[in-house]
Amino acid sequence: MKIILINPPAREKEYNSIVVPPLGLLYIGTVLKQAGFNVKIKDAFAEGMTWENFTGYIRNERPDIIGIGGMSPVIDTVFKAVKIARLYTKYIILGGPHVSLYKQKIFTQCPEIDFGVIGEGEETILELVKALNYGYPIENIAGVITKSFQNNFRKFIDINTLPYPDRSMLPYHLYRYPLLKHQPVTTFFSSRGCPYHCTFCDKSTFGSIWRPRSCENVMGEIDIIINCYKIRSIIFYDDLFTLNKDRVIKICEEIIKKKYKFEWKCEGRVNIVDFEVLKLMKRAGCIMIAYGVESANESGLSYLNKKTNVNQIIEAFNLTHRAGIKTTGYFILGIPVETYEDELKTIELAKKIKPTYAQFSILSPYYGTKIYEDAVNNGWYREVDAKNPVDKDLKRPVILSPNWTEKKLQDILKTAYQKFYLTIPYIYRQILSIRNFTQITSYIKEFLNIIKWMKVK
Ligand code: B12
Ligand code: SF4
After folding, report:
1. Across-strand partners of 30?
2. What pLDDT does 277 receive?
3. Following CA atoms 230, 235, 241, 242 in sequence, which dihedral angle do they give, to the nearest 10 degrees?
4. How far is the centre of ligand 2, averaged over its atoms, from the C-alpha of 410 (Å)?
5. Distance CA 352, CA 165 (A)
6. Which residues, 6 or more positions from 12, have their beta carbon under 8 angstroms from its beta carbon?
7. Whose CA is nearest to atom 53 of ligand 1?
């Protein structure tokens, strides 16, 4: 059986500063390859393929099975790819966060899909493909859904038993991430799940139990990445890389002991920051930590169930910068219990804690989250154009509580980018931090992107 896993082309051809390996497809491809199947991954997004080229590619290849993954904000591109693929393949399988949330509703949204795989996909896909290949029944495969039946999620995988992603399956020369200086760059998951319950977050795939990979298991993958693929930058995309201090210390000590010189970035949480660990992370090559700040207001933090406070936010950024590590701050605007004036405080906080990079987004209630239920129950759910400069969404779900109108949301978003980025001190700091030509071009493109976005608004 010939299998192709697809990351669909971009909605429109345009410059994307972040183009990173699709790790979900890579895990799926790896287990199938190791089981002896003829499988390829086509990262049409990274290749910058047009829809015409993509159609031509699928028409030539005519695989038996096409597997696609997708998150809700770009699901229209996934469905477009499915409709094209339908003409040239026997079976179409959809995995990823969107199907894990919407389950059988996907067959109404896109009737051309044959099977959905919900939750973690590695074990399910193997059983499903074997069943299709050998003609076994599929009705009892946990994690599989079709138009006629919906099986339950399978129990979580012991992720220490998974094979390492086979990175030879992806075009590593095409990936870029402007906040990390060196290429090639890869993505990495050293744990799955998160024990927190932020009300805007979708955890339908990996759940609420934090499942770490052991230090030995993580180092085994890093050894291959560094020695075989000559990767120079790693993005740890775990929901919470820093949750267990001892594990972070062990991993950092191993990296230092092995004298590995790659740089890396991870996601942290402001309430679990430790200065000694930060200094060790810096010595081990960590150059950036991203924190979900979200809001400067206790009312907003509480609505989002963040379990953090403003003092922790200020302290976390302060300690991280003192350890010599750069920061990204994620900020949320348009929180229904906050007002326009409250959001101005959030913007002021962003300026005060000085993240190297700030991303402001309008609060988006995605299906399946607590805030989605809240928005629908109150009649506050709307889909409007409230994109930030890096979003590719067509329209973004927002919450129009009595405090907000569409215009107010768009205004506050614009104000945030203006007040944070278009200031002499910020531009000066960025110029001082530039180290190479790639950074110059990506900063200029980002900067022009923000200006262009502001003009359109
Ligand atoms: C990396 C990442 C990105 C990257 C995407 C790059 C990429 N090529 O993957 C970037 C930075 C671009 C991004 C952007 C956004 N993201 Co994002 N992102 C993630 C993140 C942190 C990790 C994804 C990942 O690599 N996971 C690791 C792999 C192994 O897991 P996986 O992809 O889920 O794959 C597993 C299963 O889903 C399944 N599977 C996946 N694909 C397939 C395919 C087949 C055929 C099969 C059988 C199975 C299968 O099997 C895999 C192995 O178990 C997740 C959080 C998370 N915990 O996953 C959020 C997440 C996917 N992002 C999310 C969101 C909301 C966004 C943004 C809207 C955020 C924002 N405010 O702007 C934007 C949207 C971008 C846009 N509009 O274009 C949500 C999606 C919710 C949803 N309903 O779809 C998530 C889940 C975060 C969250 N907890 O809410 N994101
Ligand atoms: S936003 Fe981050 S900390 Fe909050 S529940 Fe989601 S993954 Fe966990």
Report:
1. none
2. 98
3. 90
4. 25
5. 40
6. none
7. 120
| Coil vs helix vs strand at 152 | coil
User: For the domain with range 2-145, which CATH number is right: 3.40.50.280, 3.90.1200.10, 3.40.1400.10, 2.60.120.10?
Assistant: 3.40.50.280
Residues 46, 67: Cα–Cα separation, whole Å: 17
Question: How far, in Å, CA of 221 to CA of 144, rounded?
Answer: 29
Question: Residue 407 CB: number of other CB atoms within 10 A?
Answer: 9
Are 68 and 202 a contacting pair, CB within 8 Å? Answer: no
Is the dihedral angle over the CA atoms 399, 403, 408, 412 positive or is it negative? negative
> Can you give the three-state secondary structure of 87-113, one letter per residue?
CCCCEEEEECHHHHHHCCHHHHHCCCC
177-456: CATH architecture: Alpha-Beta Barrel (3.20)
Question: For 57-101, how does the pLDDT look when each residue is reduced to its tens digit (9 = 90+)?
Answer: 999 999 999 999 999 989 999 999 999 999 999 999 999 999 999
243 lines ligand 2 (CB under 6 A): no
The ranges assigned to domains in the chain are 2-145, 177-456
Q: C-alpha distances in angstroms, 193 versus 13, 127, 241, 453?
A: 34, 23, 10, 34
- Indicate which atom in ligand 1 lies nearest the CA of residue 189: 27
What pLDDT was estimated at residue 443?
A: 72
Looking up tokens 């319950």 gives 197
- Ligand 1 neighbours (beta carbon < 6 A): 5, 18, 20, 22-25, 27-28, 67-69, 71-74, 93, 95-98, 101, 117, 120-122, 125, 187, 189, 201-203, 205-206, 237, 239, 361, 366, 391-393
Transcribe 395-448 into DSSP letters.
SEEEE--TT--HHHHHHHHHHHHHHHHSSHHHHHHHHHH--SHHHHHHHHHHHH
pLDDT digits (tens, 9 = 90+) for 180-229: 888 899 999 999 999 999 999 999 999 999 999 999 999 999 999 999 99
Q: Residue 395: what pLDDT?
A: 79
pLDDT at 457: 53
Is the Cβ atom of 196 under 6 angstroms away from ligand 2?
A: yes
Question: DSSP character for 153?
Answer: P
The predicted pLDDT at position 389 comes to 79
Compute the distance between CA of residue 23 and CA of residue 135 in angstroms, rounded to an integer.
29
| Model pTM score | 0.95
Torsion of CA 256, 262, 267, 273, to 10 degrees: 30
Does the beta carbon of 280 sit less than 6 angstroms from any atom of ligand 2?
no
Residue 301, both tokens:
């933090």
Please tell me if the CB atom of residue 193 comes closer than 6 angstroms to any atom of ligand 2. no
Instruction: Quote the longest CA-to-CA distance of the chain.
Output: 66
Average of per-residue pLDDT across 303-322:
98
